[in-house]
Amino acid sequence: DRVLDSFSHKYFLDNPKGFIDADTVYLLSFSIIMAHTDIHNPNIKKVYFFYFFLNFKKGKQNYKTTMDQNK
To answer: In terms of pTM, does the model score above 0.85?
Structure first.
């Protein structure tokens, strides 16, 4: 958790125009890790998180980037 938190803050500081805040970077990074684990772990029989991840930008979660705001 601390590594991902540090990564998200550093990424946001280096790329301030890509995301609204560091929490958004954290959420997206965590989601990517969980989706990857969900897909490639042979012990998981049903891939639920991957479908959640695919619907992520379709309004299921409060997720916006600065690029989305410019539309």
So the answer is: no
